[in-house]
# Entry
Amino acid sequence: MTETPVVRMWVIEPPEPAVRQTIDRLVRSPDVAHVAVMPDVHLAAGVSNGVVVATERFVYPAAVGGDIGCGFAVVAFAGGAAALDQRSAAEAVLRSLPRSVPVMRHRRCEGLPELAGKLAPDALSAPELAAKACTDGRLELGTLGRGNHFLEFQEAEDGCMWLMVHSGSRAMGQHITAYHSQRAVPAGGGLGYLDTQGEFGIAYLRDVAWARAYAAEGRRRMIEAAAALVADSLSMEVDWGSYLNSDHNHVQAERHDGRTRVIQRSTNREAKSRCSHDATEQHLVRSPIAPRHTGVPAERVHWRFTGTATRFM
# Structure
């Protein structure tokens, strides 16, 4: 007899009806054992963002999302955040940051990063994905992206300045998700799954691992580029012992309640309905919205660099 999936919610208010429908549809899908609804849940195609799914062996690409490996990297500086309160210092960073950390793509004329080791294109499961890695993958490695992706300077309780980057696998995650979604077994309601013990599921997990490594490497490159800029502009060095890099859009096997489950996460994303974008502008802004993304009090966020002009309602 099939066990009824367990659903747990950590929300202040009940999800809106459209979100609830996506949750109910997911609960009825094959092999789903647990569904956890996070405080940031909001509507998305297929599986709502802010939902964590546990299965026995099936993986739902829609539950991971297209931005595979999206997450955060942070590092501390050996100096105080008050340095950015000086207008001239902040302007020096502002002028150079868009060039050090491109929003969308690197300039071909400046040379493109090579993909090697874990990121070698032939490590991907299909020739068409390898071809995308040689083009989009090289053009976008170490670029920020738009939407709710950002680079932010923060102040810790001790006054120390920290740098945070929120970004993902850029176009490569989208390419990987689209490729494998076409091979998924239909589960109803627009969802599809792959068997992690079958050929297609194994290939998907392999490509997810590649995308996570790609996203982590991209965040590291952006941190290094911004840190070099700060060192040049503010004469402030980085404490690399403080460096952390973690993602929140992934699939991985985890042990829970004595059983191994396939955990699929796509969380901590901004609801598109809450903001409007003007894609023509790159800027640094004082941010009144840090708690939504990072849990850092707004007064401790000094500057945020984004790829879009964003106004939050």
